[in-house]
Design brief:
This protein has 573 residues and is an alpha/beta fold. It has 20 helices and 20 strands. Helix 17 runs parallel beside helix 18, helix 18 runs antiparallel to helix 19 and helix 19 packs antiparallel against helix 20. One of its GO terms (biological process) is mitochondrial RNA 3'-end processing.
Length: 573
């Protein structure tokens, strides 16, 4: 496709407010604008000599003086999937005079914002790629990386807190846990997180209360496998772990009986995932079976009767391995949602050899989470770069992390992807702060088109200071994919458009085409949805037509027209 070719033209170059301390001795004057006075006061209390050991990461709770000025009431809501723990926390948030919800996904943040606004509690939505501000709102629903640790709230909620143990994003959850300045802090997640949360909060002088929850509806592991695909029934969800396998299973199910399938997987645009889930949940829809990856584990409300694992192995980016106990429980727990038309959830496999692992995992507690993630802010990296007389981010990061010291309760978050981006931007004449922002961006470094899109954005920004979308992307070139490869390319283009929107919120006027990028992003989503519709079940050579394509086509045409006029307007300026 033309867009993909445009994005491929440049070859790659060679090689959350989270704080890290570096091994160097500095006086107060050396730190002047980089560290605020409140933090200095806390640090002086732990470094009586007046000098600072910046590699000492053993007291990260001191990085958040606003939160330390409060004696927070922390409520741990812990239990399995579908136990009502987050629901109860959100009721407290709704009743508060001010508050914030911090979730792991944009879908969850949007869902909570919509819930609060519907309950007449004005609530902003703030994610890396979205800003929907409501006049007079004192509540916000945010992705955890966007949590504001400087604002005071009456109530704060952190969802899926077990992700403090995530090797890539755990640092963001640690920052929210230690840094949110709220009278009440409600923390929701798996019981496996309780010991580490208790240890981390021993130093904060917070009052901690633990509330345990039980599942609200039964979950029954079946003793037999699915057998024939003709045994698929409405409400089933087949789970697998690759895009190609998802579409193979979708085709097999649709050819075996009277069912059409929705699909949900991680690289689908969030809007498409939501619409696919909505159609699956709609009793009037023809799409009554779901084929999905582990992306269904959180973030979507799904009316699933039975989870069917096609396999209990997945490739995790490094190797193919068996699913862990928490992964199996998180996915299986999506069956039998409380209050849905399926009051009892069931779970089984395609392969009889997988049944023993499935049954044993559902009976087992999740392994205790031993450590929480940490990562440095730009402020401390900037100090370190000044000491070493360089503004090359890649070596600064490597040296910094090599010298960092941690307590046994923490680990340094995996920054492999960030180092890859740092190697790219270090080739450009950019300020250290600009390099850091590009490294924090949500680029998928395993996706060539996405990575090359970021490279071209960074190159154009370095050369001109302003990045116009049309310099690497031509509106009007998007088409409905007809093959899996074209679908994958369109998903990649969507990632590039999302990246542009994300950068536009960090570089203000330097990325001026945010609205055009958002329009084109919506068109990408609609074209992907049309592909999904066209790949539906065929019977006797007749394609069964769903109820949605005409509306999709109207929306698509309207967005194309709006994008066209946006482009004409941009050219006239």
């Amino acid at each position: 496709m033309a867009v993909a070719a445009l994005l491929r033209r440049g070859a790659l170059s060679s090689s959350c407010r989270h704080d890290v301390y570096i091994r160097c001795l500095l006086s107060d004057s050396d730190l002047h604008p980089l560290v605020n006075s409140a933090n200095l006061n806390f640090w002086r209390g732990n470094h009586n000599s007046g000098k600072f050991d910046f590699t000492d990461m053993t007291h990260p709770h001191l990085w958040y003086p606003n939160a330390r000025e409060k004696k927070r009431n922390v409520f741990l809501h812990v239990g399995p999937t579908n136990s009502g723990k987050t629901h109860n926390a959100l009721k407290r948030l709704e009743a508060s005079s001010s508050g914030v919800y911090c979730g792991p996904l944009r879908l969850l943040a949007r869902e909570v914002a919509e819930r609060l606004n519907k309950a007449s509690v004005p609530c902003n939505l703030i994610t890396g790629q979205e800003r929907e501000e409501i006049e007079g709102a004192k509540h916000s629903s945010v992705t955890v990386e966007m949590a504001d640790v400087t604002t005071e709230y009456q109530c704060a909620v952190i969802d899926e807190i077990q992700m403090v143990g995530c090797r890539t994003r755990g640092c963001s959850f640690t920052r929210a846990l230690l840094g949110l300045c709220s009278d009440e802090l409600h923390v929701c997640g798996d019981p496996a997180v309780v010991p580490i949360i208790q240890r981390l909060l021993e130093a904060t002088d917070d009052v901690v209360t633990i509330q345990y929850y039980e599942r609200l509806s039964p979950l029954v592991p079946l003793k037999s496998t699915l057998g024939s695909f003709s045994n698929i029934k409405a409400g089933d969800c087949m789970v697998t772990f690759s895009r190609r396998e998802i579409y193979k299973l979708k085709k097999k199910i649709e050819m075996a009986g009277n069912h059409l399938c929705s699909v949900v997987y991680g690289s689908l645009p969030p809007e498409t995932r939501t619409k696919q889930a909505t159609m699956f949940n709609d009793e009037a829809s023809d799409l009554n079976v779901l084929v999905a990856s582990d992306a269904i584990g959180m973030g979507l409300n799904l009316n699933i009767s039975r989870i069917i694992f096609s396999t209990l192995k997945k490739f995790d980016g490094i190797c193919t391995r068996e699913l862990t106990v928490p992964e199996i429980k998180q996915i299986a727990g999506r069956a039998g949602r409380y209050g849905s038309k399926f009051p009892v959830g069931e779970v089984t496999c395609l392969d009889a050899e997988d049944l023993p692992l499935l049954h044993s995992s559902l009976k087992s507690p999740s392994p205790i989470i031993e450590r929480a993630g940490l990562f440095p802010t730009f402020d401390l990296l900037s100090v370190y770069s000044r000491l070493h007389g360089t503004d090359f981010l890649h070596p600064i990061l490597e040296r910094f992390l090599d010298k960092a010291k941690l307590s046994p309760d923490y680990f340094i978050a995996d920054c492999e992807d960030m180092l890859k981006v740092a190697a790219i931007v270090d080739e450009l004449p950019l300020a250290l702060h600009d390099k850091y922002v590009f490294c924090q961006s949500p680029v998928d470094v395993r996706d060539d088109i996405s990575t090359q899109g970021l490279t071209q954005f960074a190159e154009n920004y370095a050369k001109k200071g302003t990045v116009r979308l049309k310099e690497i992307f031509t509106p009007g070139t998007l088409r409905v994919p007809t093959t899996h490869n074209q679908l994958q390319e369109l998903e990649s283009v969507h990632k590039v458009l999302e990246l542009y929107v994300w950068l536009s919120y960090r570089f203000d006027d330097s990325f001026p085409d945010r609205e055009l990028a958002a329009y084109q992003k919506s068109i990408c989503s609609m074209l992907i949805e049309e592909y999904l519709e066209r790949s539906g079940w065929q019977q006797q050579g007749q394609r069964r037509v769903l109820r949605t394509p005409r509306k999709l086509r109207r929306e698509y045409d309207a967005l194309q027209l709006r994008g066209y006029f946006r482009e004409i307007d941009a050219r006239s300026k």
